[in-house]
Amino acid sequence: MPTGLGRLKTNPTYVSGSINSTYAIFARILRFNVGNPRYLQFLVTGLIVWQFLLLCLNDSLHAVVGHANLIKKTAFPRITLPLSTVAANLVHFLLTLVVLCAFLAMTHTPFRGLTALPAVILTQCALCLGAGLIIATAHVFFRDTQHILQIITLAWFFLTPIFYTPDMQLDRLPPNWQWAVFLNPMTGLTCAYRTLLMSEPLPALSGIATSFAVAWALLAAGVWMFVRLEKRFGDEL
Predict the structure, then answer these.
(1) 10-20 pLDDT, tens per residue?
(2) I need a surface site. Which of 76, 81, 174, 204 has the fewest CB within 10 A?
C-alpha cells in the first residue's frame, strides 16, 4: 500500500478529496476514526509525513546504481548522490507542508506552536538520509533490495500510527515495555508533527526522545556503512 501512494500534489482540494476518498474510507471501515471529529486532518498529516520518508527511500534505491557511469569515470564525494535525493524530496515536502498548514487553517485546526518544527524536520531528514544511505549501499551489492524494501515499507507503514493513535499500541503493552513502541522513529516523529500542527496530545517526552535518538543513530550507521563500502562501488557496478 505505501509504495503506491504516489506524490501528493500540492493542492488543498486534491489533498482533502483524495485522502477522503481512499484512506479515510479504509480507516472508517476499520473504525479508526470513531470519536475523532478531526480525523481527516489527523490522517492527512500522518500520510504527508510518511510520504516524505517513502519518497526518500524509493529514490535512494537508484541514487548510486543509477549513476554507474558517473561513479566509474569521475572522482567526487559519492555521498552527495543519496544526499541530493533527500534534499530534493525535502523541498517537495516543505511545499506540501505549506499546503497542509493552509488546509489545517481552513478547517480551523488549532496550531500548538511551530518553533520546534525545524528540529522535527531536521530529525526526519537525518532518518531519511541514514536509511537512504543504507538502501543505496545495499542495492549496489544486492539487486533484490527493491523487493525487500517494498515488504519493509509495507510493514513499517502499518507499525507507524498513521491511521490510528499511538495509544492503540501503547495500551497493548505493559508500562515497562511501552518505550519499545518508540523504537520506531516514525512513531515519535509523526506524534511530534501532529502535536505542533494539530495540538494533538503529546506522548511521554522520553518516548519522543527515543524516536529521535534512533533516527540520528540510523544516520550515523548509514554514513559509516556508505563510507566503508563506497570504494567497492566501481567494481560492483
Answers:
(1) 444 444 444 44
(2) 174
Task: Say if residues 213 and 188 touch (Cβ distance below 8 Å).
Answer: no
* Dihedral, 26, 31, 32, 34 alpha carbons, nearest 10: 130
Task: Classify 68 as helix, strand or coil.
Answer: helix
In the predicted model, is pLDDT for residue 133 greater than 70?
yes
Cell triple for residue 17?
478529496
Strand ranges (E), 96-172: none
Residue 211, pLDDT above cutoff 90: yes
Polymer length in residues for the chain:
237
Picking from 154, 160, 155, the residue whose alpha carbon sits closest to that of residue 185 is 160
Residue 189 to residues 3, 137, 184, 195, 211, Cα–Cα distance (Å)? 20, 25, 9, 10, 7
Write the pLDDT tens digit of every residue in 97-113: 999 999 999 988 888 77
CB 109 within 8 A of CB 55: no
Q: How far is CA 224 from the centre of its chain?
A: 21
**Taking a C-beta distance cutoff of 8 angstroms, is the pair 200, 166 a contact?**
no
